Amino acid sequence: MKKLNIVNMLFLLLLPLLGACSKDEIIFDSELPRFETRPGYMLIEAIVPQSTSANDKIYIIGDFNGGMEAVGDPRWELEKAYDTDVKWGIYLNPADFINGKTLADGYTFYNSEQGVELTLEGTPAIHTDAPALGERLNVLLYRWKDSTLTPPSEIVHDGYAIYVIDHSGYDELALYAWGEAEIFGGWPGIKPTGKVEINGEVYKYFDTGAANEGLNVNLIFNNNGGGEQLDDYNVTLDQDYYLEITSAGVVEYNPSVSHDGYTIFINDLSGWDELYLYMWGTVNDLNGTWPGMAPTGTQIINGVTYKYFDLGAANCDGTLEEHVILNNGNGTQFDEVVVFNLDRNVYIELTPTGATEIDPDNYTPGGTVTPDPTPNPDPTPDPTPGEESEYRILVENQTGWGELWIYSWGGNMEIFGGWPGMSANETVEIDGVRYEVFMIKASGQSANLIFHNNAGTQYDALTLTMDKDYTIVAYPDKAELK
Predict the structure, then answer these.
(1) What is the DSSP letter of 104?
(2) Do the Cβ atoms of 58 and 89 come closer than 8 Å?
(3) What are the strands of the beta sheet with 233-236, ordered from one edge?
(4) Backbone phi, then psi, for 19, in 5-degree steps?
(5) CA–CA separation, 435 and 195 (whole Å)
(6) 473: which strand partners?
(7) Which among 44, 90, 191, 431 is least surrounded, fewest beta carbons within 10 Å?
């Protein structure tokens, strides 16, 4: 039975009256500004396809800069935002435009690794919107077309193949093998035989040779002899292998799933016997009445096994604003885990205490669990030298959270008070930068800071000696001294 209290019921009754204004108030994370505007420059912030790697090189091309001739020119290369892989930006100086052309004459984007930009329908994408000087424009990119891909139907493999989802970050990838034979020759081995797209995923593949079938070998992925390599991965060449490689190592990858529309991926650490996804909003009971739909299937991404819910291509045109409720179908639920227009894939960590949206490329499972509000102090607390003085911690808040709180544990757990700690005392602007100010009294203790939003999202920030003022930049997943 759906667990809704009377306040929720009244809110649902008011939805038709509130819908028009609430939709205007919602700003999705991918739409948030990630770059500062510059006088005299146009700023384009591109929301890139999910398949984009942080190491890809992306260029804006069009008649205004010579089209493909602009590829390789740093003036036309996009920069990835510091705190997300979804947003890339570029500053354009109209003085660099050629032949009297402007952005209104049409432009698109080219990924050196994955090809030119396409629409959802697979046709070449052309944009004509342009920001004014000193302003920004968000541009949504749907997918890439890799002109180097070979259709699976045209590939004739030599023996079994090693298929690789490459998130290594290497400029060049090579594969060496040793064991019963050096099947790829001496170090550093061979470069990929080719690339292929299977169910929307791009794989680099290495043919292992029919003469080597049945051999047991150890695979070493490396940056083509440039000094970086991954640990050995043992295989017997009696089948094709699907692997994912990152800077941390090699993991088995289940062959790509063909998804129906956008997808919600859940790393389910809840311990629930069952998991359901319910949606309400523009369309109530979308994909099922309470408790909603069961998982469509499971998929391994970056070594994490996710349960996933396909949202349906017919629902994913960006017009439906839906509220997501995860529940166990038996009285436990987390309301409005995410509210969005079914216009992107969403990744969520689900624990017994809550559900948090995550970045799958920068994620440590279990990293969002709320700590014990009263953790045990250190067995040997730091000494308290001298008298207390008042210090300021200035925080440039780039988290995107509604609130920022600081809690500390260590030599003196009460510097910021008991859990949840303290929010800012005031805000100030210094050299055009807005800071949240936290005033504390301390006397040189070591404090381990936890930044959180007092709503289930948190991370271990910094360990500081509280004997001076500090200036800090707080990102969604880390904090740095400024």
Answers:
(1) G
(2) no
(3) 174-179, 216-222, 233-236
(4) -55, -45
(5) 47
(6) 396, 480
(7) 431
Query: C-alpha angle 267/269/275, rounded to 5°?
Result: 75
Q: Round to whole Å and give the CA distance between 346 and 326.
A: 13
122: burial class by Cβ within 10 Å (0-12, 13-18, 19+)? exposed
pTM passes above 0.85: no
pLDDT of residue 243: 92
| Sign of the alpha-carbon torsion through 308, 459, 456, 471 | negative
253: Cβ–Cβ under 8 A, 6 or more apart, which residues?
Answer: 163, 165, 242, 243, 244, 300
Q: Is the peptide bond before 188 cis (omega within 30 degrees of 0)?
A: yes
State the sign of the Cα–Cα–Cα–Cα dihedral 367, 369, 373, 375. Answer: negative
Q: pLDDT digits over 251-291, tens only?
A: 887 665 778 888 999 999 999 999 999 999 999 999 999 99
Is-contact 272 328, C-beta < 8 A? yes
Helix (H, G, I), strand (E, B) or coil at 378: coil
Q: In this structure, are residues 150 and 123 in contact, taking their beta carbons and an 8 Å threshold?
A: no
CB neighbours of 116 closer than 8 A, spacing ≥ 6?
108, 109, 110, 124, 125, 144, 145, 147
- Look at residue 35 in the predicted model and tell me its pLDDT: 94
Q: Is the dihedral of CA 184, 187, 193, 198 positive or negative?
A: positive
CB count, 10 Å around CB of 324?
26
